[in-house]
């Protein structure tokens, strides 16, 4: 075990983690040069399209240093705050972390968040600044700030370039010298492995990604998950190179995978412990992870109603690979059966929708993203509401989730960022200087943050501001339920909870947009936005005009025209009356257009 080093790379989004990982794969010869491609560890098509890491990815590298052979287990991690749960699991599986800072951007919000989490996990942190090949001014200032953050001298901060490879070999060897090898643990001879991730394989079934904390297990042995009690015969085991590479055994200190052959996703829980059946003891369970708490809720419906079972199966398989994803069945009067899912943020939800389409070929329509509210009913009981349709009309008090945000921005944009107080409900706002940047700490309603706060922040700071946030608590709020009626029919999928100050503006925007999107009928359709039992805004879609017929160049006899007009008017009145009594069909494309960000 003294020759094993387990470490990860942590950084703010777009600071070059995946590019640095590419160079490490090259230096160690893990991937042949002819097979090498940019962002090699980003296996998802979406990761390459967006240029960001979404899933943490483990890989084993073999390297000789100082006359000794080492096994280096690297985990590349995401940088966006929505995927912080991925990073937290990676930190529990390793003993060290490379904290990477882009010299063109300096320390950013997620840099701070990742650093504090790594310290909390007790990891050895090695600092490095990336993109030094650009030779920009101010590099020494960023090195100084990074050293002060970690609490080391400036000479201990590595200067690297993920693009050219400069300084990467020295950084890799520093990992060998500074990151401690795995401990043997109290149960050295009994197999214990922590499940830190999983995925579904068509032939191997559920595959658990594990970090071994004790003992050894062999191929074809009987094993089990301690929490769920599910037993299985190991179909295959091995390590990531980064493709699956079969081994006969995996043992203490190693990171690898176990193919269970199981098909039911419900039997696996991230944070569970795998042990051999012969060694089973409930006391062998390793400390797991805190369950990820979803903060954004969205309902998904398949565009093709017959695809509900396919959607449900796809969500179950996605959840194996994304344990923060929570979902349950849901129905909509216009869109049919679907699922209501909980996410860690808006990006997490958008990525999931895209993965459903790209990986499972399922096109979906979704509801407005919403957050959970604590509502005190008239009987004094508190209930948690995650679906706007279920928000009660009569209540005593409402509490909304508050996000504690940290914003890092160059000092010249401080005034512009502070002006957002006039648009959003920013509270408890304080500032602190870090070199030439300013750290702004504030709290704001989560509903505001997921709506468009991040976009507005990037806009007023020319893209230089960075944001990190976590849910801190619930606070009293003045909100109202905003519903939509089309031809007197309640369109539940368009119901939202908004701050009372914003009700009229949102109502007006919604009815105007619907008027443009809804197709005309042979009768007029009233579109109404309703809140607190009263109509806030209204638009009317006029009926389609009928062609009266050919009356010749002179237009025909006016009496005949009048008879036809009166007949048409009576017909439209009957259609309009019938329209208020029957179901109004709202095409899926209308929902999709209206719900676009």
Can you tell me about this structure?
With 597 residues, this protein is an alpha+beta fold. It folds into 5 domains: 4-178, 3-Layer(aba) Sandwich (Rossmann fold); 192-284, Translation factors (Elongation Factor Tu (Ef-tu), domain 3); 296-366, Elongation Factor G (Translational Gtpase), domain 3 (Alpha-Beta Plaits, 2-Layer Sandwich), CATH 3.30.70; 374-476, Alpha-Beta Plaits (2-Layer Sandwich); 481-594, Alpha-Beta Plaits, CATH 3.30.70. 26% of the residues lie in helices and 33% in strands. The strands form 6 sheets. An 8-stranded antiparallel sheet has the order 11-10-16-7-8-15-12-13. A hairpin with a 3-residue loop joins strand 7 (192-201) and strand 8 (205-214). The mean pLDDT is 85.
Share of helix, binned: 25-40%
Q: Which oligomeric form is depicted?
A: single chain
CATH architecture term of the largest domain: 3-Layer(aba) Sandwich
Number of domain modules: 5
CATH superfamily of the largest domain: P-loop containing nucleotide triphosphate hydrolases
Looking across the biggest beta sheet, what order are the strands in? Answer: 11-10-16-7-8-15-12-13
Would you give the CATH topology of the largest domain? Rossmann fold
CATH class of the largest domain: Alpha Beta
Shape: globular
The total count of strands amounts to 31
Outline the biggest β-sheet. Answer: 8 strands, antiparallel
Report Rg. 29 Å
Q: Quickly give the structural class.
A: alpha+beta
Mean pLDDT, to the nearest integer, reads: 85
User: What is the CA-CA span between the terminal residues?
Assistant: 51 Å
Flag low-confidence runs: none
Count helical runs: 13
Q: Report the sheet-strand fraction.
A: 25-35%
């Amino acid at each position: 075990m003294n020759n094993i080093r387990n470490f990860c790379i942590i950084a703010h989004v777009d600071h070059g983690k995946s590019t640095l990982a590419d160079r490490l794969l090259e230096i160690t010869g893990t991937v042949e040069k002819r097979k090498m491609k940019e962002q090699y560890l980003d296996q998802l098509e979406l990761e390459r399209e967006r240029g960001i890491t979404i899933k943490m990815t483990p890989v084993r590298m073999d390297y000789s240093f100082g006359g000794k052979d080492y096994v280096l287990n690297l985990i590349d991690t995401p940088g966006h705050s929505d995927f912080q749960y991925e990073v937290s699991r990676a930190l529990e599986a390793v003993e060290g972390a490379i904290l990477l800072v882009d010299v063109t951007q300096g320390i950013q919000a997620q840099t701070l968040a990742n650093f504090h989490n790594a310290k909390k996990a007790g990891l050895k942190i090695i600092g490095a600044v990336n993109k030094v090949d650009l030779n920009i001014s101010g590099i020494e200032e960023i090195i100084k700030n990074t050293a002060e953050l970690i609490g080391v001298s400036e000479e201990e901060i590595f200067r690297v370039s993920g693009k050219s490879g400069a300084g990467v070999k020295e950084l890799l060897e520093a990992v060998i010298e500074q990151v401690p090898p795995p401990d043997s643990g109290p149960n050295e001879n009994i197999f214990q492995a922590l499940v830190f991730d999983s995925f579904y394989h068509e032939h191997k079934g559920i595959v658990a990604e594990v970090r071994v904390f004790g003992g050894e297990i062999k191929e074809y042995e009987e094993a089990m998950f301690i929490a769920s009690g599910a037993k299985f015969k190991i179909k295959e085991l091995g390590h990531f190179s980064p493709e699956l590479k079969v081994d006969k055994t995996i043992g203490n200190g190693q990171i690898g995978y176990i193919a269970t052959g199981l098909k039911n996703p419900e039997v696996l829980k991230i944070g569970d412990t795998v042990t051999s059946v012969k060694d089973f003891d409930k006391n062998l369970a390793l400390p797991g992870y805190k369950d990820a708490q979803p903060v954004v809720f969205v309902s998904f419906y398949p565009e093709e109603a017959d695809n509900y079972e396919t959607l449900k199966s796809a969500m179950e398989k996605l959840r194996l690979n994304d344990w923060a994803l929570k979902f349950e069945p849901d129905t909509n009067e216009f869109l049919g059966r679907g699922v209501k899912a909980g996410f860690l943020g808006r990006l997490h939800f958008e990525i999931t929708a895209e993965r459903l389409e790209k990986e499972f070929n399922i096109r979906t329509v979704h509801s407005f993203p919403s957050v959970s509210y604590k509502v005190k009913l008239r009987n004094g009981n508190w209930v948690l509401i995650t679906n706007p349709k279920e928000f009660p009309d009569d209540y005593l008090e409402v509490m909304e989730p508050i996000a504690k945000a940290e914003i890092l921005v160059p000092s010249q944009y401080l005034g512009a960022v502070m002006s957002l107080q006039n648009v959003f409900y920013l509270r408890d706002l304080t500032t602190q200087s870090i070199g030439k940047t300013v750290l702004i700490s504030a709290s704001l309603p989560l509903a505001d943050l997921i709506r468009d706060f991040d976009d507005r922040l990037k806009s007023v700071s020319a893209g230089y501001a960075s944001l990190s946030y976590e849910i801190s608590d619930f606070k009293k709020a003045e909100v109202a339920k905003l519903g939509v009626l089309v031809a007197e029919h309640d369109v539940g999928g368009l119901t939202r909870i908004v701050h009372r100050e914003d009700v009229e503006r949102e109502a007006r925007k919604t009815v105007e947009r619907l008027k443009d999107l809804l197709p005309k009928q042979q009768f007029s359709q009233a579109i109404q936005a309703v809140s607190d039992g009263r109509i806030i805004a209204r638009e009317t879609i006029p009926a389609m005009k009928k062609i009266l017929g050919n009356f010749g160049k002179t237009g025909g006899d006016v009496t005949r025209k009048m008879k036809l007009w009166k007949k048409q008017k009576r017909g439209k009145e009957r259609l309009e009356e019938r329209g208020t009594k029957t179901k109004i069909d709202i095409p899926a494309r209308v929902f999709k257009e209206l719900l676009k960000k």
